[in-house]
């Protein structure tokens, strides 16, 4: 594992001898713009792992993406190698259909301290709720970023992250039913209890094998772009263009036939799969 190899992968060319917020913001943004959030391994007959060497080979050497336990675990290694003071945390993702948080930690994030101030980094939530930059841990403060306004809330025991989006305008009205009409959504909650990677192993196994897991029900690949993001969920390809000056986002969606899936992954996400990929999308759980 080589830090320069990671920097080459994300296109970072600046100095990193200063462990400041500007450098952290830069590598955070470059990561989400270069390494996709995706769970395609599950739908290729492969198994995701918490082995950092395997994750490095997959995300850095093989130009793949990964889900949170891969992207954010790799990012924690980057933080360590660079010399940042950080703590790995576990969070519970909010399920709006059940109106409750997942019963155990299923999402790995990192807290970084710079000049005595703590920040949350998360390079692997994906799609419309992906952070581009670290969030300062100040309760109730609106922190605008290109995807929308993020907000951390502290109830005394745990922190809660929520996001307020802009109105989404769908080009093809046939897809309007897939759009979330609620503009403010809870993302996850977390205490400040330090966690190691072993804390996530059992849940990780469940999320890639349980028939009720959204990662089993859907194949997902998303990547942030300078003016929005793109995603392939099952056979549905989306390009979302942020238009903050109009307080809206433009959503362009279309179906991709099986014969074009591999080409779309290569052209739009720079992802080439080795094993046979079977797209999946249970739209009842969109």
From TrEMBL:
Chain ranges passing through the membrane: none
Cited Pfam families: Acetyltransf_2 (PF00797)
This protein's UniProt keywords: Acyltransferase, Transferase
InterPro entries: Arylamine_N-AcTrfase, Arylamine_NAT_domain_sf, Papain-like_cys_pep_sf
The EC number(s) this enzyme carries: 2.3.1.5
Cited SUPFAM superfamilies: Cysteine proteinases
Major enzyme class: transferase
Family the entry assigns: Belongs to the arylamine N-acetyltransferase family.
Protein's name according to its UniProt entry: arylamine N-acetyltransferase
Upper classification of the organism: Eukaryota, Metazoa, Chordata, Craniata, Vertebrata
